[in-house]
Design goal:
Elements: E1 5-9, H1 14-26, E2 31-35, H2 44-50, E3 58-62, H3 65-69, E4 74-78, E5 89-90, H4 92-102, E6 107-111, H5 120-124, E7 128-130, H6 143-157, H7 171-187, H8 197-210, H9 214-230
Parallel strand pairs: 1-2, 1-6, 2-3, 4-6, 4-7, 5-7
Helix pairs in contact: 1-2, 1-6, 4-6, 7-8, 7-9
Length: 246
């Protein structure tokens, strides 16, 4: 059993895209989400490297990262652990049971550009970072190699047993919560208007580690509305949110 998708951000080389498609198909990943790729999945060189995997993979191209990730419940970024002290960094072997517990079909692995990797903003929107434990003197993997290591390790190491853990909320819903928190915490003066991301980034990491659920998102958005009511900017209401309330 493997993750629901591989997300590639600004991939620039046809060989990497085609090879990533091939290894994804090898290990049961059937969807690639491509964010602003410099090469397209239907190009001849990409198909040559894919070796027929292009017939097995559903590739979708997106302009924005948020569009590509919206409906996945867990995002796991592939990146170096250096300088990631605010992110939960795990090895591929450690990540496998964590992703299985949260639901592999609703999880996606995220990989950055061959040269620049993932931006700080993209990393902030992921729930954990996976770092391949390479030789310290030569730690940088080729993009397609990184995809191969992660999808193969997770495919072989994740249990297929049913999880009793509640399903995490979708990335779209979590990002909606983060936007609401930003507005509410600015309203009550908790965030520094000149640097609101300093606290919001830590809250996003907390939600990512916890695997925040749909109901918990609704409760926290209710807290946001109550803060706005207390500040005199919005109508308030006591109690838990009703089913379906955003």
């Amino acid at each position: 059993m493997s993750v629901g998708a591989v997300i590639l951000v600004e991939t620039s080389l046809a060989g990497n895209l085609g090879a990533a498609m091939r290894v994804a198909a090898n290990f049961g990943v059937h969807r690639l989400e491509l964010v602003r790729p410099a090469v397209q999945p239907d190009e001849a060189e990409v198909k040559q490297w894919a070796c027929g995997a292009d017939q097995r993979i559903d590739c979708r191209v997106w302009r924005h990262f948020g569009e590509a990730t919206a409906h996945y419940h867990t995002l796991a970024a592939s990146a170096s652990g250096r300088g990631r002290t605010n992110l939960p960094v795990v090895t591929p072997r450690e990540a496998a049971p964590m992703l299985a517990e949260r639901g592999l079909p609703e999880a996606a692995l995220v990989f950055g550009n061959e040269t620049s990797g993932l931006s700080r903003d993209h990393l902030d929107r992921c729930d954990l970072v996976i770092r391949v434990p390479t030789e310290p003197a030569f730690p940088v993997l080729n993009l397609a190699q990184a995809v191969a290591v992660l999808v193969s390790t997770i495919h072989m190491g994740a249990t297929t047993a049913d999880s009793t853990a509640p399903e995490p909320a979708s990335q779209e819903d979590v990002e909606g919560l983060m936007s609401h928190l930003r507005q509410s915490l600015l309203t009550v003066g908790y965030l520094d208007p000149n640097s609101p991301q300093r606290i919001l980034r830590k809250l996003r990491r907390l939600f990512g580690r916890a695997g925040i659920t749909d109901n918990e998102v609704k409760i926290l958005r209710g807290v946001c509305r109550q803060m706005e009511w207390a500040a005199g900017t919005k109508p308030g209401r006591y109690g838990e949110p009703e089913d379906g309330e955003a």
